[in-house]
Amino acid sequence: MNAVADAAAASAAGQTERLKLTEIFLSLQGEARDAGWPTVFVRLTGCPLRCQYCDTAYAFHGGQWWEIDAILAEVARLGARHVCVTGGEPLAQKRCLQLLERLCDAGYVVSLETSGALDISGVDPRVSRVLDIKTPGSGEVARNLWSNLPLLTANDQVKFVICSREDYDWAKGVLADHPLQQRCDVLFSPSAAQVGARELADWIVADRLPVRFQMQLHKLLWNDEPGR
After folding, report:
1. Which CATH class is domain 17-222?
2. Residues 16-37, buried b or exposed e (16+ Cβ, 10 A)?
3. Residue 28, marked binder
4. Is 30 in contact with 214 (CB distance < 8 Å)?
5. Using the 8-state DSSP alphabet, how is residue 152 labeled?
6. What is the distance in angstroms between the CA of the first residue and the CA of the last residue of the chain?
């Protein structure tokens, strides 16, 4: 029995070092504070949300198991200082927290792209948490975990994807109720199929809204090509 128990414990210990990944690749960061920097993207598999504008639905299922040591080795091989852990929803895998900590320990500039539907309190404070607050137009507004907002710091970022004028006004209301611009960077992005970039820019300028307008650089360069 002791041998069986020891084997089971060893197997369980090994499992704690693995994550399911869709892809790891080198590209340019296309948005948020580090836009333009060569960045290694570590895309974890799986997401509990289904936003109507999602452009990475291929990461919902499938993927391959990677040892965290192997992830670190591949990140090092790709050779960029910036690393972005994304998904899917990376925090849906509990071992993501361990990966983030180890990336920080290795000296990388680390960001995490998260939906805002899961608790961010366990994320290493060295990580820049890019929190995507879901607007009504996303179809997932009910999933926002509002208790995350008081946890945000100057190292973090908040993103709103705007699908309509109604979304824009809703996001303004969120900023009125929760002055996030006093805590961290706030980014507004157009959902390209629904709101024109110039239209959103004009709204922000007209309202003198204290947010950063952004477009997704990677889409301008490579459209939605996976691995770019």
Report:
1. alpha beta
2. eebbbbbbbebbbbbbbbbbee
3. yes
4. no
5. -
6. 50
Tell me: is residue 55 an annotated ligand-binding position.
yes
Domain assignments of the chain as residue spans, ordered by start: 17-222
* H/E element, 112: strand 109-114
Question: 47: annotated binding-site residue?
Answer: yes
Is there a binding annotation on residue 30?
Answer: yes
The annotation status of 56 as a binding-site residue, yes or no, is yes
Tell me if 88 is assigned to a ligand binding site.
yes
**114 in a known ligand binding site:** no
Q: Is the dihedral of CA 127, 147, 180, 172 positive or negative?
A: positive
Q: Is 86 annotated as a binding residue?
A: yes
> Mind listing the pLDDT tens digit for each residue in 34-53?
999 999 999 999 999 999 99
- Residue linked to tokens 């500039």: 109
pLDDT digits (tens, 9 = 90+) for 157-200: 999 999 999 999 999 999 999 999 999 999 999 997 889 999 99
Ligand-binding site membership of 87 (annotated): no
CB of 138 closer than 8 Å to CB of 53: yes
